[in-house]
Sequence to fold (422 residues):
Amino acid sequence: MKISKMLFVSEFEELWLDALQSLMGLRKAGLNHVVFLHVIHREKVAMKRGTGYLKQEERKLREIADIRFIDWAETLFEEGMEVGAHIVIGNTVPKILSVTEDEGVDLIVTARRKRGKLEELYAGSETSDLLRRTVKPVLIYNYLSQSGKVGENPFERLLLGLDWSVSSERVLDYVLALKGAVKRVDIIHVLSEKAIGKLSKKEAQKLEREHKKRLNEVCDVLTQERFDARPHLYIGNTEEQIEKGASEHRVTMIVLGTRSKSVWKERWSGSVSHALAERSELPILVVPAETK
Amino acid sequence: MAKKVLNVEDDVDTRTFVSTVLEKNGYTPILAKDGEEGMRKVGEERPDLIILDILMPKQSGIKMYHELKTDASLKDIPVIMLSAVSKRTFLRSQEALTEFGDETVPEPQAYLEKPVEPEDLAEILRKILG
Fold:
């Protein structure tokens, strides 16, 4: 796994140049190419009664995006980075997916994206939609958190959530590829209270020991690659415990895998990564299952 | 036989504008919409001159210029940079690429910042291609 090319999706309301610059620590992990994407929403230029297609508005919005991207690109070009840009009209998620494919990016960076209430009811948020449909890792970058605190180096301290699924292996591979950009990794596995509750004390202790052993094995893999890694076993609701772990260990980013689920299956059984991507104040890196 | 000029540009309006200027002045335009396609067309068409934008999808004009000028078989093809990116940034970026171990590259034959007047572009083309 490599991280040399990054897609940076901006609507100029959330992610700006300072957010982009905070990600430049990834250069130590091999990042050398940034592709900007700005999607002009179709409804902003669509046919309107009495006015038709708003060609002039499209030109204006393209020009605004172009001026901003050129300014950002100049900064990166001067640092020896390769930069590209796409300014397109359409729906955000399909455009992110098509540019990701065309450019062959290794990481998608985007802000949390909402839809209208009615649309979210049947289609979910744009963030969930993107996470369901892409096979590329996505960094949901809540750069300016609700508290207004700005993340200077989001890759500095990671909370790596593992559930021992196949996607967990892929997440670990991805974290290993971030070598150079990461200072510390706190590895967490969350046991459910329900699973523990059914067991005898001896069985519960055995289960605890098994999971600690697996956590230590992962820790050893990371330590061998010179990461500062610590294992943690938590018990309770997975989402809540991951957030608790993130806070206790003062991490700068949460890293999770995600399994392929349909929109309806996700509604029924839920998805920890998608749920945290929707609500966490911290940036969340979601590494999806390899095939969809 | 008319001289061939490759225009590497992602913006369709600018491509049309440059093509029109080229045709009106007796040159044959060849078009590419990004640096990757541009390099392919250079190999296929061997143009007499290249007009090159900078900020494009897939491969930027900065990388393409560097590739052209560090390739012994292509480095003599004259290049006019035509971009909204400043010349200062362009020169600094070439220096930055050189710092990473590549050989130093010469400055382009001309550097035009967008927008350009058709007569100014035509005059530069005449000066370089005759």
User: Anything to note?
Assistant: The CA atoms of residues 96 and 102 of chain A lie 10 Å apart. The mean pLDDT of chain A is 86. The first helix of chain A runs from residue 17 to 22.
